[in-house]
Amino acid sequence: MTKIEHIGIAVKDIGGAGIIYEKLLNTKVYKIEDVESEGVKTAFLKSGPNKIELLEATSADSPISKFIEKRGEGIHHIAFDVEDIVAEMVRLKKEGFILLNEIPKEGADNKLVCFIHPKSTNGVLIELCQSKP
Ligand code: ZN
């Protein structure tokens, strides 16, 4: 893993949250993207080299709907940048981490992603992401 790629924040209203984070970071949302497979709409902001991903549910059975129901709005996941996602998935599985998908899937922002169950990481949902060539 090379760095934290972004921090994901679950929000109820991505429009309103976008305005708050634009004010906070003194920058504009630079990308809004629907990830249909995950039932989420995402908005990205940059703070220097760091990225924040806001996530709003687009359906009632979205993982973001469930998260907000249980825990309210807040930090949802930490994403790490990896160079070879398949190799990292094999390594982490061997180490006993619980992968939420067995093959990399399409994420937002032109990434291949894999999530690691918070049960195996002290309560924090972890995302691996590899930039697509
Ligand atoms: Zn993410």
Summarize the model shown.
This protein is of the alpha+beta class and 133 residues long. The chain is built from 3 helices and 8 strands.
Description of the structure:
The chain has an 8-stranded mixed beta sheet with strand order 2-3-4-1-5-8-7-6. The protein starts with a strand and ends with a strand. It has 133 residues and is of the alpha+beta class. The protein is globular. Helices cover 23% and strands 39% of the residues. The longest helix is centred in the N-terminal third of the chain and has 12 residues, at 14-25. The structure holds zinc ion. Residues 6, 8, 53, 77, 79, 127 line the site of zinc ion.
Question: Secondary-structure map with pairings?
Answer:
Elements lengths: L2 E8 L3 H12 L5 E5 L4 E8 L2 E8 L5 H9 L2 E8 L3 H10 L10 E2 L4 E6 L8 E7 L2
Parallel strand pairs: 1-4, 5-8
Antiparallel strand pairs: 1-5, 2-3, 3-4, 6-7, 7-8
The structure holds zinc ion.
Labels describing this entry:
alpha+beta, eight-stranded mixed beta sheet, 3 helices
Q: What gap, in angstroms, lies between the N and C termini? A: 17 Å
Largest sheet: 8 strands, mixed
What is the CA-based Rg, rounded? 14 Å
Number of strands: 8
Q: List the ions, cofactors and other small molecules found in this model.
A: zinc ion
Total of helices? 3
Strand order, sheet with most strands? 2-3-4-1-5-8-7-6
Helix/strand-derived category reads: alpha+beta
N-to-C order of helices and strands: EHEEEHEHEEE
